[in-house]
Amino acid sequence: MSDSPIHFDDALGWLIEKLSEIARTPGPLPLWRTAEADVALVELIDRYWIGRDVRPDHLRAQADYPYYRPFYDAAWELCRRGILRPGRVAPRNRTHPDVIGDWFSITEFGKRWLAEQADHTFVPSDPGRLTEILLKFEPRYGHGFRQRASEAVACHRLGTYLASCVMAGAAAESILLALAIAKMGEEAAMKEYAGRSGRKAITDKIVHGLPGGTTEQFKSLCELLNYWRDQAGHGTASTISEIEAFHAISRLLRFAQFASDHWETLTR
Question: pTM for the complete prediction?
Fold first, then answer.
């Protein structure tokens, strides 16, 4: 099979973004008049590649359709999750599924789910791809972040889920320290951090004077740090599952993106 020019996770993330836009469209969608479905997948795929200067005739001339396969795989992954349903909105006694494959409808659950995704950073499922995305933040958050974020993903891949969560919390702490150093200077930040309730103290200094919404989001994302760093100190057996570990890494990525997007506001 030919190598695809786009990774599955990139296709999935882009498709979720476009479906979120479609789901938010008020009133009946124009596509209903032609195929009675919400999504014309092949049209979305063509739009993606044409926007990147790939000609439609070149798309269809490639053996094994490498430009299309990741998007079709992504669409069926969203079907598996209950976000999409193949075919028309309401087939109404049609005996031949003539649009299954290229046309999809968004489920009621899917509409709610897509609305929630509009404000979230997409988290890839492939460990290598996830590591690659996390490590792009190293220049801002430092080598300590790189080490801990990499180990969080590696531990998840190996099935050591408590360790994965603890490393995700430690990586989030690297983000907090980077913000504090940028805002207060290294000496003052480290002194504050080393004191009693140091994490809370520097968190309060970072959010001081910020708008309420930004403060609330920042503190919510910091809960990842507090929970997993404290969890590591308990001697009881852990019941952490794969799902919780992936959620911890997902929150780490969202924290890293949020802090990067609001860096000037958080450090002034």
Answer: 0.62
Q: How many residues does the chain have?
A: 268
Distance CA 149, CA 217 (A): 21
C-alpha–C-alpha distance, residues 226 and 235, integer Å: 17
4 contacts: CB under 8 Å, gap ≥ 6: 66, 67, 69, 70
Structural domain of 56: 8-117
| Ramachandran class of 159: left when φ > 0, alpha when ψ lies in -120 to 50, beta otherwise | left
Amino acid at 257: Q
Residues 6+ apart with CB under 8 A from 34: none
Is a pLDDT exceeding 60 seen at residue 246? Answer: yes
Which one is predicted more confidently, 255 or 62?
Answer: 255
Are residues 33 and 132 part of one domain? no
- 134, 253 in Cβ contact below 8 A? yes
Cβ proximity of 166 and 232 under 8 Å: yes
Beta-carbon-side half-sphere exposure of residue 134 (alpha carbons within 13 Å): 33
Q: Which residue has the tokens 């989030």?
A: 172
Do 146 and 263 lie in a common domain?
yes
Q: Count of domains in the chain?
A: 2
Q: Could you give the 3-state DSSP secondary structure of residue 230?
A: helix
pLDDT level of residue 3 (50, 70, 90 thresholds): low
Last residue of a domain, one of 79, 95, 117: 117
Return phi, psi of residue 84, to 5°. -115, 160
